[in-house]
Design brief:
about 120 residues; mainly beta; six-stranded antiparallel beta sheet; three-stranded antiparallel beta sheet; 9 strands; about 0% helix; about 40% strand; binds FE2/S2 (inorganic) cluster; EC 1.7.1.15; nitrate assimilation; metal-binding
Length: about 120
């Protein structure tokens, strides 16, 4: 393992169709597990109004925000619908030998974008 990857637990710590959160310098990151054991890591903040995505409902490769039902694509962090918006995504992987979940803290998509603000004003 090089410095890019950080062990954050084991695959069995994350329930299928669920999520677990990790506190990082980038804020709280939610690691989601789909029904077919794919993992995705996103900032735990909905682009709409900061809803906790880790408490949403995972379906296929998306999560529905628990606050106002926006659907966020787990792979891209993009919020569906005409308003747009995006939460940051991170790389995550499983060590095949140990089943350890490893998270990269280099954001894959660097910008958090709210649908109601221009990109330059996004946080
Ligand atoms: S905060 Fe997520 S849909 Fe409103």
């Amino acid at each position: 393992m090089n410095d890019r990857w950080h062990k954050i637990g084991h695959l069995h710590d994350i329930p299928p169709l669920g999520a677990r959160c990790v506190l990082t310098p980038f804020g709280r990151i939610a690691v989601f597990r789909t029904a077919d054991d794919a993992l995705y890591a996103l900032e735990d903040r909905c682009p709409h109004k900061d809803g906790p995505l880790s408490q949403g409902i995972v379906h296929d490769t998306s999560v529905t925000c628990p606050l106002h039902n926006a659907v966020i694509a787990l792979a891209s962090g993009e919020m569906s619908g005409p308003e747009g918006g995006r939460t940051r995504t991170f790389d995550v992987r499983v060590d095949p030998a140990s089943q350890a979940v490893e998270l990269s803290l280099e954001p894959r998509s660097a910008e958090f974008v709210r649908p109601d603000r221009p990109l330059a004003a996004a946080e």
